[in-house]
């Protein structure tokens, strides 16, 4: 009964629209949950073990935590992955949280109890008390999302002129990127300088053949893995790749 009165007395301003919408939002839980609504809720909470209100804080804090331990993990992730795989007998990509605590201590990740709780809460993807170690490692090792930088920070790798529209992040893509990560981490600075002469028009894009040639010069040979990488970096099949976006991931 409050909705018609609110509609008749309200003007066309934005606050009035909000006043009409609020009762509808508050009345949603009274309706029975349909299968479509359950599917929607599942897709929203699949990456988060708790509700959106209680889980938003750990995710924000986890970004700071992951940045804190990123350099350490970038150099020791293969050892961490090996131990995780040994404990993951069923090959599910997850281990008990207690096992991750032992691994974090063994590899000196230097995490406080609160930071451990936030990390394990974020990567308990199935809400079953287990830690998704593969998702954790690829998040800490690869920087696939654009990084914010302060005005006073020196730009190490230029952002491309045209923002990239990335393709799907498949398991094959992550496997290919992780395999070459140690080599790229060792030689990305000279590789960046080698890429530039091939980019005569200064667009930040290289033809696939030139991109592959530069990698070959640094003893990085891609076979079928090249297609997995291009599936992400060349979603539109333009036969070109943004070498800055590629290097930024490492």
How would you describe what is shown here?
The protein is mostly helical and 250 residues long. Among the domains are: 57-141, Orthogonal Bundle (Recoverin, domain 1), CATH 1.10.238.10; 171-249, Orthogonal Bundle (Recoverin, domain 1), CATH 1.10.238. Helices cover 60% and strands 4% of the residues. It is built from eleven helices and four strands; from the N terminus they run ααααβααβααβααβα. It has helices at residues 2-9, 14-27, 35-45, 52-87, 97-106, 113-122, 133-141, 171-198, 208-217, 225-233, 243-248, and strands at 95-96, 130-131, 205-207, 240-242. Strands 1-2 form a two-stranded antiparallel sheet. It has a two-stranded antiparallel sheet with strand order 3-4. Helix 1 packs antiparallel against helix 2 (14-27), helix 4 packs across helix 6 (113-122) and helix 8 packs across helix 10. The radius of gyration is 23 Å and the shape is elongated. The protein starts with a helix and ends with a helix. The relative contact order is 0.09. Residues 5-23, 25-29, 34-60 and 149-153 have low confidence and may be disordered. Residues 221-250 form the EF-hand domain. Residues 1-51 are annotated as: Disordered. InterPro entries: EF-hand-dom_pair, EF_hand_dom, EFCB6.
């Amino acid at each position: 009964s409050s909705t018609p009165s609110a509609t008749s007395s309200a003007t066309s301003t934005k606050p009035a629209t909000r006043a009409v919408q609020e009762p509808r939002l508050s009345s949603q839980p009274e309706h029975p949950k349909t299968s479509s609504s359950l599917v929607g809720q599942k897709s929203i909470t699949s990456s988060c073990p708790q509700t959106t209100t209680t889980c938003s804080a750990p995710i924000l804090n986890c970004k700071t935590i992951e940045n804190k331990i990123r350099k350490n993990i970038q150099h020791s992730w293969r050892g961490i992955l090996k131990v995780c795989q040994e404990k993951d007998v069923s090959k599910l990509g997850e281990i008990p949280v207690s096992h991750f605590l032992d691994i974090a201590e063994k590899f000196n990740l230097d995490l406080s109890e609160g930071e451990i709780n936030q990390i394990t809460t974020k990567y308990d993807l199935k809400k079953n008390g287990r830690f998704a170690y593969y998702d954790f490692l690829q998040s800490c090792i690869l920087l696939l999302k654009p990084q914010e930088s302060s005005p006073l920070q020196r730009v190490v790798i230029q952002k491309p002129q045209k923002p990239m529209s990335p393709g799907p992040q498949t398991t094959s893509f992550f496997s290919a990127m992780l395999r070459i990560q140690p080599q790229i981490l060792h030689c990305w600075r000279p590789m960046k300088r080698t890429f530039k002469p091939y980019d005569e028009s200064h667009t930040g894009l290289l033809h696939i053949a030139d991109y592959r040639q530069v990698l070959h010069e640094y003893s990085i040979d891609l076979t079928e893995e090249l297609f997995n990488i291009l599936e992400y970096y060349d979603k539109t099949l333009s036969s070109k790749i943004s070498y800055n976006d590629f290097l930024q991931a490492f």
